[in-house]
Automatic annotation (TrEMBL):
Belongs to the major facilitator superfamily. Phosphate:H(+) symporter (TC 2.A.1.9) family. InterPro entries: MFS_trans_sf. Residues 16-38 are annotated as: Disordered. It comes from Nicotiana tabacum. SUPFAM superfamilies: MFS general substrate transporter. Signal peptide: none annotated. Keywords: Membrane, Transmembrane, Transmembrane helix. This is Uncharacterized protein LOC107771900. PANTHER family: HISTONE-LYSINE N-METHYLTRANSFERASE.
Amino acid sequence: MIMMVMQKLTRKWRNSRRESQYDEDDKFSLPTRDDGRPIDTQEQEELVRSLEKVQTQQSLLWRGVFSGLLLCYVAFLIYSIYQQAYYPWELRYHAYFMYEVDSWTIIAADWAAILTCLMTIKGLLHESKYHRRWLWSSCCIGMIVAVFWLNHMLRLAKFRWDILWLPVGPLSGAGICIYIDHLLNVSSEEVRKLRGYMYAYKAR
């Protein structure tokens, strides 16, 4: 009697294992029949709107993130200007140039770097067809700042790699933001194209 009961339980357990295994396989298997059908006009509208919403959110997020990083860099540069104006050559990265240029030239270079960052932020956040002009203009000013610092760094007795951020910082910030703006514009253009591909269809 006990043996019969045990055999029945064993059979049930094996069957349940097989069924659960088939269920697991079904989760990862491809569909065997084609469920493709034209999408209803309303469904198309909802899909495109959801993509537009996601794209807008992503654009605001990344523009905000990079603008925030640039603002932090601007705050740091303002601190550098303050230190150089009231306590000349106390900052190590300025002290390297003590015998190369005068204090006000260093301050002017930092202001030019600030201008580069602010123009980049303006181009990144400004919603108009001219926003790219701000970005490319900031890149040009960043290049002038980079040439200034690199020229004086090469005149030092020893090239200081630890202050490479002085020439590279503003220029790379502008360059990265131009690239981010390009990617976001490509994404936005793809969503606009998708809206243009919408067709009239009413499901019965």
